[in-house]
Amino acid sequence: MNRFTKLAAGIALAFTATLAVAAKDDLDAQRLSNSLDQLANDPTLGGYAQGEQARARDAINRLYGLKSKERAHALYIAERRVDVARAAAQLQDAQSRIAKLDREHDQILLDTSRLEVENARRELDRQRQQAQAVAAENARLQQEGMDSAQAAEQARAEADQSRRLAEAQAKVANAAKRQAAAATAAARALRDSGDSGSATPPKKGGQ
To answer: pTM score, two decimals?
Structure first.
């Protein structure tokens, strides 16, 4: 093998090695690009961390055309950018879920509060109606008591009047009895006196 042939073989080997390194570098960039595409197309996470995803995409695009010395650091940065974009999207999704849960919790508390207020209002109405019923019953009993007291007072007055009337009638009856007894005695005395005056006197001298 002459010198020219050796030189050509060396150049071809170096070019092949360069192509192999470039191909490997392209595979790294494609791997990161696919990972970022997967994140962007995720139905849950794709809408989050748009700024971080854009910065990761820029870091991946800068990998193309860099020299090997510069590429290692750029590859590291691109990988971290993709990781940060995914972590930021997951964090924002978690925050969104927490906010949704907080809203649901607040709504539950609001609904519970409304239910408690409604139950309290119903209980208050029930107690008010019960109090009104008790007050009405007390008023009825009080009126019945007043009516009973008035009836008792009237009964006592009527009883006193009846007693006084009976006493007056007894006095009248006693007076009538005394008058009757006196009349009877007078009639007897008069009869006795009449009987004595009508007797035949004794005859004088044989007349």
So the answer is: 0.49
How many other β-carbons are positioned within 10 Å of the β-carbon of residue 31?
A: 13
* Rounded CA separation 158/142 (Å): 24
What is the tens place of the pLDDT at every residue in 144-174?
A: 888 888 888 888 888 888 888 888 888 888 8
- Cα separation, 60 vs 52, in Å, equals 12
- Helix, strand, or coil here: 198? coil
DSSP string, 48-100: S-HHHHHHHHHHHHTTTT--HHHHHHHHHHHHHHHHHHHHHHHHHHHHHHHHH
- Give the three-class secondary structure for 16: helix
160-195 in b/e burial notation, b at 16+ Cβ within 10 A?
eeeeeeeeeeeeeeeeeeeeeeeeeeeeeeeeeeee
